[in-house]
Design goal:
Length: 376
Amino acid sequence: MTELPLAPATKPARPFFSSGPCAKPPGWAPENLATESLGRSHRSKIGKARLQYCIDLMRELLALPDTHRIGIVPGSDTGAFEMAMWTMLGARPVTTLAWESFGEGWVTDAVKQLKLDPTVLRADYGQLPDLGAVDWSTDVLFTWNGTTSGVRVPNGDWIADTREGLSFADATSAVFAYDLPWDKIDVATFSWQKVLGGEGGHGVLILGPRAVERLESYTPAWPLPKVFRLVSKGKLAEGIFRGETINTPSMLAVEDCIASLEWAKSLGAGGLIARSDANAAALDKIVAERDWLGHLAADEASRSKTSVCLTVAGADEGFIKTMAGALEKVGAAYDVAGYRDAPPGLRIWCGATVDTADIEALGPWLDWAYATAKAG
């Protein structure tokens, strides 16, 4: 029988490396949440004020111009992105980019649900499609940061300034972790369960002026469920972007998000980005020092700094399950197995709510888990 390896002496202080919901901010505690809005209607004076405050904090941190609306919507990032698709697509041809599972999901929606016959530009996991091949006379759907593949677009330079179509960015693992060019993005969606470490179930929809123009000038051919309706009597339902949500939000989740945003504000947008960058660099050092570990995203310029996906030499799904299970059992790392549709590997969240010291402490534990899985 193969002798099991000795466990490292030091564990990550906060072994939370899930890619969603992600680690809470350092120092987070439930007793620190404001409670005045709990048990109150979201349409009460305090309910609407807290929702508006949440939106205002997001606008300040993202340095969003006044021309862009921010709305809190149901269904997490998925709900927000589908809301945008169902209400705005169909006015002109569509191009969809897919290099991981969520991008493929938008392809499925466009083809099978909306019957749009889009142009589809695909790439394998770990790669990007040819961004130069995008036709900007069409509406373009893409993920800014592929959570399940660890591949991101390197910047916004490939998005045409003179585009006729709208740019739809599923940016759920990118907002607050990168300096996004908002003049290039007509529609952006995210969930605060990612970089902010918030609770699941709520999405955020950001609309630029060209998206608002589309909503007010175009009516889709298909019926829209109530939770998707962004227009009333031909005009944008502005209340949605002032905290008057379409459906009932969890005020506890909103207060939790506010707490994360106030923590983020104490660091500033640059501080959030710096924390993600430092975490990704620490994990990259771990990878570079191990010949059995690699990056699924081969090109560093398009490698995620939040949802970092790793390859493990010779590993199949069972091997990865053993590694992740061993780490969880001893409390050294939680939720590090790659996404179910991705090639077998590890996925380590490196967003701003993770401490770099915990990434650094993870390296020896990955060695231990690899040796444990090989020992059988």
